[in-house]
Design brief:
By secondary structure, this protein is mostly helical. The chain has a domain at 25-80. It has helices spanning 3-21, 34-51, 60-73, and strands at 25-28, 77-80. The chain has a two-stranded antiparallel ribbon. Helix 2 packs across helix 3. It is flat, with a radius of gyration of 17 Å.
Length: 90
């Protein structure tokens, strides 16, 4: 395989791993619904794409940071989901 194809495969694997193991949560702002937050997040994704000149960034952490900064500028806070308690009979 070419080096570029190998790098792409490695990047995709890293992104999928991050999706599986990353902390889950949501962006919240008092007075905003989840649907409004999703719309604002979509706007921030567009901003991140524009900053990378319309192409996917080779650095997913940079693009993620742009989205995070955008959401914070819009007044949102990221809240991690609380882990579900497991109850045992024993």
């Amino acid at each position: 395989m070419r080096q570029r194809e190998m790098m792409l495969i490695a990047l995709l694997a890293a992104l999928l791993y991050g999706c599986e193991t990353g902390p889950s949560g949501r962006w919240v702002q008092p007075g905003k619904t989840d649907q409004e937050a999703q719309g604002d997040y979509a706007h921030c994704q567009k901003v991140a794409m524009q900053e990378s000149e319309g192409q996917r960034s080779t650095d997913p952490f940079k693009e993620s940071g742009v989205k995070e900064d955008c959401m914070k500028r819009m007044g949102y806070s990221y809240v991690k989901d609380q882990p579900k308690q497991s109850y045992s009979r024993y």
